[in-house]
Amino acid sequence: MKSYNQILVTIPIKLTFFISFLLLVFTFAVSDSYAQALRGSANPDITFNRARDLANNQLYAQARELCKEILRTHPEYHDAAILKARTYAWEGSYDDARVILKELREKVPGNRDALYALIDVEMWSKNFEDAMRYIDIALVDHPNNTHLLYRKALALKESGDETAAVVIINQILDLDPTYREAKDLLNTIETTRYLNHIGLGYKGYYFIESEGDPWHLFYAEMGRRTRVFGPTVLRTNVANRYGINDWQIELDAYPTVRPGTYLYLNAGVAPESEIFPFTRFGFELFQALPSSWELSAGFRLLNFDNKDLLILTGSLSKYLKKYYFSFRPYFSFSSDGSDPDAQSYFLTLRRFFSTSDHYLNLMLGRGFSADFDRFIGGEVYDLGGTLFEAMLTYQHKFSQRFLLKAGVGYKFYDSDVSEVLWGDPVVFEGGLIYRF
C-alpha cells in the first residue's frame, strides 16, 4: 500500500501527462485548421469577402487569384466564378468574362446572378442585341422588374429603336413614377428626336482697365444629326477687332468610325482674311477606353496671309458619375522662322445636373488655343503670352427645345502682350439654341 507521500508525488506526474496530452491534441487541431485556412477550404466565405474587397478597390488581378484559390477547393462556389468574370469585364476583357459566365450558365442554367452579370457584360461592350436576349430571359420570371426593364429600354435606345424604348420607359413609370433614370432616359430620347437645331451666340473681350474698344464675336449656326457624318454644324462667325470687321464660314462634323471611335472634322474660310485665318482645317480622332476614359489626338492648320500655323493637340478625358475631366495641350509651330514655338495647356472640369445638356463648366489654361481664341490673329498666336485664363460657363435646358448658355472669364497676359492687346480682358459669352 502506497504511503501518503507517494500519492502526493504520483498525482502531479499523472496530471502533467494529462495536460501534455491535451496540449498535443490541441496543437494538432489548430495546425490542421490553419492548414485548411491556408488552402481556403476552411471557410471560403472569408476568402471571398477578401476578394470582393480587393475588387471594390480595383485590385482586379489580386481578386482573381483569390477567386481561383476558392474554385480549386470549392468548384461549386459560383459567386467566386461570377466575381472573377466581373473583374475581367471591369478591365474591358469582355471575351474572358463571357467564357466564364457562359460555362457557369451551362452548369447552372437557373443561376440568376450569372445571368445578370452576362447582361452587364453585353451592355458594357455595347453588344445590345445579346444583352436584350438575356434581359428577356430574366424578365420571364420577373416581368415587372424595373431595373431589368430600364436596361432593356437603354439597349433599345442605343440600338436605334427609340420608339420601342419609349414604350418600355412608360411601362417603368407606370410601375414606379419616381424612377429617376427612366425619366432622364425619356428626356434624352425626346431630345435626340430633334434632328436639327439653330443657334445664336456672342463672345466679347472687355478691357476694363484701358480705353480700348471691346472685341466682339457673333455667330449663327445651323446643325443636323446625319447618318453618315454624325452631328454636322454650319456656322458663320462675324468679328470686330481694332475697328476691323471680318467674317468666316466654318463646317464641323463628328462622324462615327465604329462604336467608341469617332472623328472631329473642321474646315473654315474667311474671304477677306483680316482677323480670321484665310483658311483653317482641323482633324482629331477620339477613342473610348475602359473605365470611362477617352483619348484623342489630332491637329489644327491655320493659314494667314503672312504665315501658316500647325498646331498639334489631343486630349485625355474621364467621365466619373456626374463629372467630366479633360486635359488638352496645344503645340504650335509657325512657318515664319522668327516665331517661337508655343505650348499651351487647358484643363476642363464639368459637373452635369439633370441631363448632359445641363451643366456647369470650368476651363483653366494658359497660352493660345486654336479652338477658343477664334478671333485673335496670327500675329499674337503664341501669346507667350497668356499667363493664365479662367472661364466659367453654365448651360441650362429650359425645355426639350431650348438651351441657354452664359459664361464669364478673365485672361491675364504677360505685360508685353498686355500692352499690345489693351490690357487684360474680362470675357463674356452667351448663346441660345433651338431644336426642331
Describe this structure in words.
The structure is a single chain. The protein is an alpha+beta fold. It folds into 4 domains: 1-36; 39-121, Alpha Horseshoe (Serine Threonine Protein Phosphatase 5, Tetratricopeptide repeat); 126-193, Alpha Horseshoe (Serine Threonine Protein Phosphatase 5, Tetratricopeptide repeat); 196-435, monomeric porin ompg (Porin, Beta Barrel). The chain has 11 helices and 15 strands. It has helices at 4-38, 44-56, 60-73, 78-90, 94-107, 112-124, 128-141, 146-159, 162-175, 180-192, 415-420; strands at residues 196-206, 215-226, 230-241, 244-253, 256-258, 261-269, 279-289, 293-303, 308-320, 323-334, 342-352, 359-366, 386-397, 402-413, 426-435. Strands 1-2-3-4-6-7-8-9-10-11-12-13-14-15 form a 14-stranded antiparallel barrel. The radius of gyration is 33 Å and the shape is elongated. Mean pLDDT is 85; it is low at 1-5 and 25-41.
Q: What is the helix tally?
A: 11
* Main sheet: strand order: 1-2-3-4-6-7-8-9-10-11-12-13-14-15
Unreliable stretches (pLDDT < 50, length at least 5) are 1-5, 25-41
What is the first-to-last residue Cα distance? 116 Å
Q: What's the domain count?
A: 4
Give the biggest beta sheet: 14 strands, antiparallel, barrel
Q: Over all CA atoms, what is the radius of gyration?
A: 33 Å
Order of helices and strands: HHHHHHHHHHEEEEEEEEEEEEEEHE
What is the share of helical residues? Answer: 25-40%
Shape, principal axes of CA atoms: elongated
Q: What is the CATH topology of the largest domain? A: Porin
Average pLDDT for all residues: 85
- Beta-strand proportion: 35-45%
